[in-house]
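Q: What structure does this chain adopt?
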Amino acid sequence: IGGGLHNFYLQTAVMLGIVVLLFYIGLLTVVLRVKLRKADKSMYRLLIGMKSFIWAVVFLAFFEVHMMYAANVLNTFFWIFTGILLLTKSKHGESIIIIPCYNVAEYLPVTLDSILSRQNFSSLEIILIDDGSTDNTLNVIRRYKEEYDDIIRYFSIGNSGVSFARNLGLKQATGEYILFIDGDDMLFDDILPLWMENIYRNRLDVSFVGYEERYWGEDHGFKENRNDLEGVYTGEEILIKKLKKQIWICTGNAIYRAEILRKNNIEYNISCRYGEDAEFIGKCLLSSTRCGSM
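A:
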């Protein structure tokens, strides 16, 4: 923008100089024309030819500078508008991570650090819902809120269950894509920017990745669930593969296009005591046309 404004002033000065030059040439030719018309007709014709040539050159220069001037003004306003648009979009967040929290004070810092410290991704918002925790969870949330005020929003409610908490987060979300994780989950280093790039490139409604099941405080290994699936599928095709156990989709390894959820009024069933995530995933898949894995 600074360069654009510099050129803006420079080109304005050049245009004013050209206008003054045109006025000078016009005044000079009027004076000489009166004198030469009577004194020397050949010189008069030469003067008229030179005047026409000079006018043509000056006009072309004026036109070129004018076009550059106009283009530069448009370019300057384009970048200003683009900057405002990006700031607005960044403020709302392209990706929303919703985390219901119930008595996870011991694990939540690791979860949040895996997002805030290990993801090179700027367009992000985290919504935390404290679901009536009786331990130090709410204090942990407040501590992270103070440090990451522009990224984190939180709500504290009486104990209402994980489905109610996730639905509350979903109602508050304003971003383009939604990821639900639990308060004891972790994201692999830099997975989020790669994940979102894959979503944008393939224009996906639902995207899922592989994941590992680890157990806190135990050292006897982990279970790996891979999703090596290439291409783009309909939601129904993905649901069939899931039911056949050919792929693995759970709460924390799938990102959903928010428009699909809002358009179809999809939310978690608060009356389900078990399997609420399976029902939610099924509804999302059946409402989606482009789904894939990374």
